[in-house]
Request: fold
Amino acid sequence: MTRGGGVVVRLKGLHKVRRKLADGSFRTHYYAWRGGPRVEGIPGTPEFIASYNATVAARKTPPKDTFTALIVGYRQSQKHLSLRQNSRREEARHLDTIVDAFGAAPLAAFDDTRMRKDIRQWHEGMITTLRKADLALGVLRKVLDFARQDGLLSLNAAAGHPQLHRANRSEIVWSPEEIEAVCAVSSPELARVILMSAHSGMARIDLCSLRWSEVDEHSIQYMRSKTGALATVPIYPPIRAVLNDAPRRGPCVFTNTRGRRAVSVRRFKKPRELRGFQISAFTICVEVLLLIFIRRACLTWRWLISWGGAKKACDRSRNDMSVGKPWRAR
Reply:
């Protein structure tokens, strides 16, 4: 970030904010991290780097009797590090929110039942983002349970609080007619993914990474990207029709319109990572159509098709496998 003698020094996590002053001019402020303390000095000077290093060092080594120290210990534990990359990144965001609210509090305060009131008020204070409030409360509950298991606390003050977010998506199910209408105006590559999602209930990322080697005569056996568990999808006639229609252009079953593996847009975290890679219309459509809702069509379609062959294939897969779970509609 800073420059001196032709050398570029990148300060990790440095957050830049450009503010408009009362006289109409603009001033840029720098913070050690998003939501963190301000870094003093002029960028590129030794004072600026020293201020940044001191702030980051203080964050890494908080007093042992504070709640921030518990958060630091949790971040270094296997309970957090064993999460998949996306889950770990989302949890880290909520941990930052929790530190902003309770970081300066002594750890002993969370061993008092009166702390439940403060947690409830903090939870309800995020009334404009109910879903985010519930997720943050869940992470706080997980952290306090981690401390209780280590003997640092005797109770979990975040347990038992009701959720704020209520949503009923039971009616958001694509009918066979709606899916047929979408497939009629879609490219063959996109139509095959839509039909496979509706008939199999497989997640988008699992569809994009599905390989021909995971497809046998009676079933599809693959490792779920979300959990790492082995899953089995029986191949009944509609799924067989989709597989027979898919051309073998490589190791992956589903490819984009250019014959390459379909890539989820969520893989790209920064705009600069898109350079040199042309996102096809297929990839964007998969994101826009929200395959998660099409997957729910499985719950409706299972009453519209014959499950005799599917059940037989699933039973045969069970006999052939020593590990893994048979397919079920999600």
